[in-house]
Design goal:
Two copies of one chain form a homodimer. Chain A is an alpha/beta fold and 219 residues long. The first copy, chain A, is built from eight helices and eight strands. Chain A has an eight-stranded parallel β-sheet with strand order 1-4-3-5-2-6-7-8, sandwiched between helices.
Chain lengths: 219, 219
Amino acid sequence: MKIIELKETITASNDRDAAVLRAELKEKGTLLVNLMASPGAGKTTLLERTIRDLKDEMNIAVMEADVDSDVDAVRIEKIGAKAVQAHTDGMCHMDAGMTRRALEGLGDEPFDLVVLENVGNLICPAEFDTGAGKCVMLLSVPEGDDKPLKYPLMFSVSDVLIITKTDVAPYFDFDFDACIARAKKLNPNITIFKVSAKTGEGFEEWEAWLKSAVKNWKN
Amino acid sequence: MKIIELKETITASNDRDAAVLRAELKEKGTLLVNLMASPGAGKTTLLERTIRDLKDEMNIAVMEADVDSDVDAVRIEKIGAKAVQAHTDGMCHMDAGMTRRALEGLGDEPFDLVVLENVGNLICPAEFDTGAGKCVMLLSVPEGDDKPLKYPLMFSVSDVLIITKTDVAPYFDFDFDACIARAKKLNPNITIFKVSAKTGEGFEEWEAWLKSAVKNWKN
């Protein structure tokens, strides 16, 4: 498994770099999904189950971005998807130039879907367009339903909000209706799923959305 | 309750600004604790219980730092401690200059303990000395025991690690021994507590440490 050491690229041109990268990926028919969340919200666990369910239908790769370690890329490789581990040189987010370098690490194989698992952080990754076709964020039940109030930008820039770890909802005071209303107030177009990787709740709906997004990206 | 709108200060002199602020607070006998964690790790909930238990023994104030909202400062005021809400103008951390401005918002009253509840983020706050006498980080059980591998700097700069939400440990695969070994490998001097704000587990030990730290700061 490849580990790629990155440096932040010049941010002045980030929006342009991101638009160029997105256009190139569209041309290739590769949907890049930028997956964002707090540390420990369940990004890798969601990917493990999603890849297991979809890998016979599409060619999937994952770019794991972390300040350090390669534990997530090792987990993804174990379930049979191609993965690279990107180290961000201490940076708290990925930008378009870093994403391009990580994509190069995946080689020339054509992928239908590449997921960038961004650094665990509810703030900074929301500020940088990576060139992704879709932005998907996770919020886990243990984090609490007030997070849209405190981290509004992340909810505003995401196409999809997946509320994870619903199996432990009985042990936490998480008001789903309040959370969803807060997210929709920031972003009326956001699509919301509730999932549990333990029980499988909600995966059918999330994966149907993802398959449709991959298909639409190719048209 | 006061809301203070902040801008990032010049970081080149941040270490010096932090040292000056720390010396001033030492002179006044005020211990500033920089409380750091991911979003939703339980910082405000820990503070609520700690303040309830200790407010008759010492004069405590809290500075809540968030990108937006005032929900945390409202919670702290409800239990009878002085609180200010600092808005970071989108910034993902507090620096020494921002901390000084937030402290000014607390007024001239002498405090034994001021807690800065930093922005929810396991990366950026670890990079900026705020002038605090002690750095305390939380890691919640639902986040997972691998976090020291992925966010090493936060564990390296903290004097204390509090593992929170231990009451839900039966519902998560969290290896306490592995987590503690990983944290100690990064920072052999780190003091570790395991707490549950729901059951009260571990609060006696944490509060004994805090009382001792406040007392030592005055000597």
